[in-house]
TrEMBL record:
Top-level taxon: Bacteria
This protein's name: Glycerate kinase
Family indicated by similarity: Belongs to the glycerate kinase type-1 family.
Keywords assigned: Kinase, Transferase
Species of origin: Lentzea albida
Annotated GO biological process: organic acid phosphorylation
GO terms for MF: glycerate kinase activity
Length: 334
């Protein structure tokens, strides 16, 4: 019997991607005990990118760095050979703050993590962009790096979005509000970013991904010679997805919400695109789009099993196991 690849992203606010994968696999195995399941939790560059690398065989390295408000936080990056995976969210993530601080959150700790990755001898550094608390254009990161040179270093941005730095689809306007910024604060952030860009390299402000992670993308492109890539593509490569999906009979992906945004660089859509002819189904907390529009054969939502949203979040693990069982009955031959 050929195998099933389980490659979900996290369910934000409830389960990490490895936890989602494990819960679905449990359901598959309960329904079809001899099913061959391969777990490949993924991420889009935002939180969970280091976890995905670790699940793919990288080693986790811990470091205390300045958190989004300067207070030390235990952060981590992942290393395999001379490649490091550094995640913005680990040092400057929104989830690290008790209360949002849109005007004051800094990317300083990200610079410290990059330095640490260079110090252990890494020459390729994947920088996962997304899930950040800051909108400082990467100024804090550059300050922490000081005169550190990236010459000879391949710095690859694994970005959750491809927005430019400025304007109506820029870092402040689009992502400021989700970091707690009021309309007036968005204007302040936009003005700060425009001023910073005019001093650092205005020609880089419109590049895809310059607006990712509060403008850390911009600083990395303009000053550190980074190259932009969609995060899910980089993560699938690091995880050896192409190899894992070969001869598979089914791929199961998913994330908390399957919606209109999913087509725009979200992990499940990247998984569909990388799966070729292998059928792909998804699990989700909720699904507000036609599965077929995302190239999915079917979508299984927690809300179809448990209509109460709070219970869905709290019991996500056991509900995903129920969905795993349903998928096994619908798609895996006994
Ligand atoms: O961190 C952020 O600002 C968003 O996730 C977009 O990258």
């Amino acid at each position: 019997m050929s195998h099933v690849v389980v490659a979900p992203d996290k369910f934000k606010g409830s389960l990490t991607a490895p936890q989602v994968a494990a819960a679905v696999a449990r359901g598959l195995r309960e329904a079809v005990p001899d099913v061959d399941v391969r777990l490949l939790p993924v991420a889009d560059g935002g939180d969970g990118t280091v976890d995905a690398a670790v699940a793919a065989g990288f080693l986790k390295v811990g470091r205390w760095v300045a958190g989004p408000l300067g207070k030390p936080v235990p952060a981590s990056f992942a290393v395999r050979g001379t490649t490091a995976v550094v995640e913005v969210a680990s040092a400057a993530g929104l989830t690290l703050l008790e209360r949002p601080a849109p005007l004051n959150a800094t990317s300083h700790g990200v610079g410290e993590l990059l330095k640490a990755a260079l110090d252990v001898g890494c020459t390729t550094i994947v920088l996962g962009l997304g899930g950040s608390a800051c909108t400082d254009g990467g100024a804090g990161m550059l300050e922490a790096l000081g005169k550190t040179s990236f010459e000879g270093i391949d710095l690859v941005l694994a970005s959750d979005v491809d927005n430019p730095l400025l304007g109506p689809s820029g870092a402040a306007a689009v992502y400021g509000p989700q970091k707690g910024a009021s309309p007036e604060q968005v204007e302040v952030l936009e003005a700060r970013l425009a001023d910073f860009a005019s001093r650092i390299g205005p020609e880089h402000a419109s590049r895809p991904g310059a607006g990712a992670a509060g403008g850390i993308g911009f600083a990395a492109l303009a000053v550190l010679g980074a190259r932009f890539r969609p995060g899910i593509e980089v993560v699938l490569e690091l995880a050896g997805f192409a190899e894992a999906v070969r001869d598979a009979s089914l791929v199961i992906t998913g994330e908390g919400s399957l919606d209109a945004q999913t087509r725009h660089g979200k992990a499940p859509y990247g998984v569909v695109r990388a799966s070729g002819d292998v059928p792909v189904v998804a699990v989700a907390g909720r699904c507000s789009v036609e599965p077929g529009d995302l190239g999915l054969k079917a979508a299984y939502a927690l809300l179809d099993v448990e209509p109460d949203v709070t219970r869905c979040m709290v019991q996500a693990d056991s509900l995903l196991t129920v969905l795993g069982g349903r998928i096994a009955r619908d798609w895996v031959s006994q």
